[in-house]
Amino acid sequence: MSEIIENGKDIITVEADGTISVGDGGSKKPVNRKDMVKNVAIAFLSVMLLLTFFSNTIMNYSLPQVAAQQISGGSISPQIRGTGTIEAEDPYNVTLKETRKVSGVAVKEGQHVEIGDVLFYLEDNESEELKNAKKELDSAKLEYEKSLFSGNVPDDVISRVRSGNTVSFDAYQLKLKEANNTYDAAKAVSDAATKTVQYLEKLKSHDGNEISYNTASYEYENALANYEIAKIDNSDMSADQKAEAKRQWELTLSDNQRETKELSTYKGQLDTSYDQKLLEAKENATAAEKALKEAEDSKTKLLTSINTEIALCNQRDNIKELNEKIAKLEEESVGASVKSPVTGLVSQINKAAGESISADETVAVIQIDGKDMTTSFSVTNTQAQKLHVGDVAKPQNAWMFSDNFKATLTSIKNDKTDPSGKKMLTFKIDSTEVTPGQSIALSIGERAVDYDMVVPNSAIKTGSTGNYVLVVSSKSSPLGNRYIAHKVEATVIAKDDNYTAINAAVNGDEYVITTSTKPVEAGEQVRLANN
After folding, report:
1. In terms of Cα–Cα distance, which of 72, 67, 70, 69 is closest to 520?
2. Is residue 117 within 8 Å of residue 144, measured between CB atoms?
3. What is the pTM of this model?
4. pLDDT (tens digit, 9 = 90+) per residue, 284-293?
5. Can you tell me the distance from the alpha carbon of 516 to that of 512, in angstroms, rounded to the nearest whole number?
6. Which of 18, 304, 329, 441 is the most exposed place for a label (fewest CB within 10 A)?
7. Three-class SS of residue 473?
């Protein structure tokens, strides 16, 4: 029995006795068995070699592709960054002394102007200040005239005020002193006269009481005598004894009656005398009180006259000042436009057409030619210690500026918000590409320091134990070099925008991984980007 195997166009036939023939059935060619085994072996080895080659290539393409750079010595210059607002040194603020309305704006921010160039066009109307000043003047004149001829102002005061004369305060003081002296003297006389009346009234009352007391004493003695006489009449004495005893008491009664009569006469005379003195004293008191009232009225009249004259003089002088104010406003009126008083760059326009300008309001700001522009920002004390006045900064977005842009550090001072921890850096800006009020971001480098081991910033990795780098080592194999990533702990010494200085357990000429197509772990095989 034979076995037939088709191989493309040829038919391989294996006979029962092991003979192998190749052909299409019509013409068969016998094949040696050893040759067949040899051919099969060669084919197998070829296939294995191809598979080995392609498997290595496939594996390489499955590995992370990395870029590596050799550790080398170099310099580090860390950058200090900050953002500030550009300010003009002594900018010129364009203002008006009157309220006007803008009809048009003739310039734009950033435009250069010369002295006399029109900045704004104004509506051709009187300013509000001038209108208000004229109204105030009319009102002041009316009040002044009403006060002057109110009927309560002395004629001499009216004459002095209208003629423009003003009495000095010294003259007022002298007149007031005289009035006060007159009043004080009249008051002293009036008080003395009143006290005299009061004294006489008290003295009259005292003397009258004394006479009344003495009279009452005699009346008491008379009553006692009458009592004793009555006792004698009812006594057991003899008639002669009674007569003698009565005679003695009757003499007492007679003497007391005489004294009582004399006291009565004296009291009448005393009352008459006191009444006359009181009448005279009261007349003096009335006259003194009248003089005091006249002095008081004169003082009040003088004070009223002085106050009225001062008020009228103030009104008169106020009218004069208002007239001067109106004349000055008319003289300072800007007309139909606002012109630049200086030569420089317009850094700020604060008004648009249709808006009103208030008195003393800044309508535009001009950076005068030749004046500096500055900007400032705050940094830490540590950063400031690495800088010096005169260092030059660059804009962080340097592509937006030409090579003519220059920012020079002019001062390093304590930051008022944190004097112990921060410093304020001030830069002089030399550029025609910026204007006051614009924000500018600057970077300024510390002085460069050389280090033995410097790597790109992208080579620094951070793990749970700190910073490290992945160093690439190579191993030879029958199929070529194999590259393995090894983790090496690294201490960062200094850093700038691009490079980092490190201290690590390496010789200093190794290659470190900077970028990779996917995360790389320590000990993992990698593929170099240029392999």
Report:
1. 67
2. no
3. 0.37
4. 888 888 888 8
5. 11
6. 18
7. strand
